[in-house]
Design goal:
single chain; mainly alpha; Four Helix Bundle (Hemerythrin (Met), subunit A); 7 helices; globular; Transmembrane ascorbate-dependent reductase CYB561
Length: about 250
Amino acid sequence: MDEAPPPASPTGLSAYVAVSQLLGLTLLVTTGAWLGRYRGGVAWHSPLQFNVHPLCMVLGMVFLQGDALLVYRVFRHEAKRSTKALHALLHGLALVIALVGIVAVFESHRTKGIPDMYSLHSWCGMATFVLYLLQWLLGCGFFLFPGTSSSLRSRYKPHHIFFGISLFILSIAACLLGITEMLLFKISDSYSHFVPEGILANTLGVLLVAFGLVVGYMMTREDWKRPPLAEELALSMDFKTLTEGESPGDGSQ
């Protein structure tokens, strides 16, 4: 007997996934074009080390974080544990890349004698990174590793989802502040004259907002949430009956 085909994705979901990835890749290309064309490029042990920072933050804290949020929408019919692992892996990779960007800016400041952590961008950016790291550690502890009770997971899950979306928004806001700060430092005399660098950097900011809106819309569509598989519901029912004596209440993200 032929196997039944996998259920189709909800109407419109595939199109939004494609748009989100197109926007994400355009973000990276635009960031690279800005740094390469107007800021001299990217290098580690050189005066260009600072440029590693914006590239890493856009790649890690925006693009990869956004894709990590979409894992439960894209891989709707894969095993839940595999989906969780991919979700955690993408967030972890985003953290590592962001950490490289943070190290780059601190080392660049030290080399050039520039003070650290005095601007609104640096305050918001560092707070977002620290909270993001905490969110990742708590998420791994509650959902990825065994030992946490189902009822505790259910109580923590709404907080995890809320802070996940909030930190994504904060990451984009910190990037927007960083773009504005960099433009005011580098081209403050000509920025108001619609110079090409200013237009390109502003375009990057618009793309960041667009990417955030598309991901946010996909995350808030109730009918696009990952449905629990039949075997997951059965396992959850058996586990809760054995350990807590109640029916399962832990749905999918």
